[in-house]
Amino acid sequence: MDGELTTAAPGGASEDARLESLGYKPQLNRVLGLFSNFAVGFTYLSPMVGIYSLFVFGLGIGGPAYIWLTFIPLIGMLFVALVFGELASHYPVAGALFQYSKFSVGPRFGWFVGWFYGFALLITVAAVDTGVVGYVTALTHNWFGWNLDPTGHGTILLITLILLAIQTTVNITGARIMADVAKFGVYVEIVGTLGIALILAIHGFHHGLGFLFSTQGAQHAATNGFGFDFHGSWLAAALVAVLAPVYIFYGFESCGDIAEETKDAGRQIPRAMRHALIWGGIGSLILTGALLLATAKHNPVGATVAGGVPSILAQLPSWLQDFLLLIIIFAFFSCGSSIQGAGSRLAFSYARDGALPGSGWISRVNQRFKTPVNALLMGAVITVLFCLLVYINPGSNYHIWFITYPAHVNALVALVSFGVSGIYLSFLLTVIGAIIARARGWQPEGAFQLGKWAWPVLIIAGGYLAAMFVNVIYPSGLSSARAFLNLDWITLLVIAIIAVLGGLYLLIWRPDRNVERHLESGAAPPESPPVIAG
Questions:
Q1: Quick check: 175 and 31 in contact, CB under 8 A?
Q2: Rg from Cα positions in the chain
Q3: Which residues pair with 404 in a beta bridge?
Q4: Is residue 333 part of a domain?
Q5: Which pLDDT belongs to residue 522?
Q6: Biggest CA-to-CA distance, the chain
Q7: Is residue 446 domain-resident?
Q8: Which of 13, 69, 169, 406 has its CA 20 to 30 A from that of 177?
Q9: 531 CB contacts (<8 Å, ≥6 apart)?
Q10: Residue 94: which domain range?
């Protein structure tokens, strides 16, 4: 229906029939409902993982008032979710951003979107799985008296390998198991956000609500939590502090990555994307607010920057602290599992079009579990290789032309800086693709349509992504506040390296031609990926 948001039925065609009309034979197990699809997107977004990782950064840079910056990425990404929802409804195909861009603009453009997005997902799995190490070592110390060094390379690698092995096994055993883990992860997120906020409130907050509107002098060097000088401008501090919530609000797009395993995908995926963002925003605001109000009565910013979130939770009984550690660990686990699951569906979809080396092997589906087992195994191996980068840790600064690689920063940290920028880049390219398609006269046919709101939504979504992408990658120097998350020119260098590698592969082996042949044929390739026995 023109002129308004609509959710009309997609012509009565079944999801499998729609998939076949786009040139793909149904191979995956379509068993997921709305809540399962939502759970995968929500646990990937994971307000718990994001807040417990970035709370100190946001508070230290912007003061308590940084909580209100949450609305910027939340609202911005809601517009992006509307764009993706319309595309997902029209193209309910595994691989999401790659497929949307391929159909919207063309094979080469779509291939590059998938290339950037795939690297970002693999790197994010490594970042999440290594991020859990400190919580595991703390819990094992409390329970068993072990004194594992959370910064030790061996400790990081061992814990990450164990976690990755469990995640891969869970994802191999089927979409339903993956969804069950994600659904349990939703309940864990509720306990870890609303539950902890309630417990802190019962224990007693140290500040009134007015504290949430104060900056605590974050704009001045003498009172900034990290000693940065924003020359009296809180807006300058906010421009950096906003990166804390920016690094949380994505992952909802994974609802589209599992489209071929979702029932009534054209209708349910757009809803799941929006719900993942909205409930993620509500959980983030409640938990962030509770943590802020529970900070120390005297010198709240300085004490929290020095002691981290544990300094706030230390007021709770020891058994409750252990329980919290346990649910934080599970939140990291379910978050990594959902990202890995989404990444494997992208790899499967990518390879099914012949867009990767070894596409025939990668795109095989296990007959017993109906999952892309080889894609999962390949992703797990690459994630392990990324984790090995913790061993590359230069003892002094390295200078390459105008770029300085800082001392005592392991290579995985540098690579992780691409995680969010790669996500934003692939998001931006996908929205640009949607704009190009609209300008060429594309008309959506899915259950969810933007109608007369399409152009305003596209412009706002594209504008937000472009502005925040620049904010994420801006090389403001190694001594700047932004260097906590972006090592000056290193993020841009990583983007350039990945782009060059992709460009060389594209020029030499021309995988886009395989994608183009699929588009032109309008049907599955003659030699479809075989289904292997379990």
A1: yes
A2: 23
A3: 399
A4: yes
A5: 57
A6: 70
A7: yes
A8: 13
A9: 27, 364, 365, 366, 367
A10: 32-356+365-525
Pairing of strands 365-366, 531-532: parallel
For residue 161, what are its two tokens? Answer: 């390998």
Q: Which two tokens stand for residue 294?
A: 């529970």
Torsion, Cα 340 309 183 123, to 10 degrees, reads: -10
Beta-carbon count within 10 A of 166 CB: 14
Q: What is the mean pLDDT of residues 486-512?
A: 93
Kindly report, residue by residue over 317-375, the tens digit of the pLDDT: 889 989 999 999 999 999 999 999 999 999 999 999 999 999 999 999 999 999 999 99
Report DSSP letters for 92-146, one per residue. Answer: --TTTHHHHHHHHT-HHHHHHHHHHHHHHHHHHHHHHHHHTHHHHHHHHHHHH--
Give strand pairing partners of 380: none
* Residues sharing a CB contact under 8 Å with residue 158, sequence separation 6 or more, in sequence order: none
Question: Is 390 domain-assigned?
Answer: yes
What is the chain's percent helix, strand, coil content, to nearest 5? 70, 5, 30
- Give the CA distances from residue 455 to residues 79, 288, 436, in Å, rounded to whole numbers and listed in that order: 11, 34, 11
For residue 532, the model assigns a pLDDT of 41
**In-domain check, residue 15:** no
How far apart, in whole angstroms, are the C-alpha atoms of residue 32 and residue 179?
7
Structure tokens at 72: 């910027």
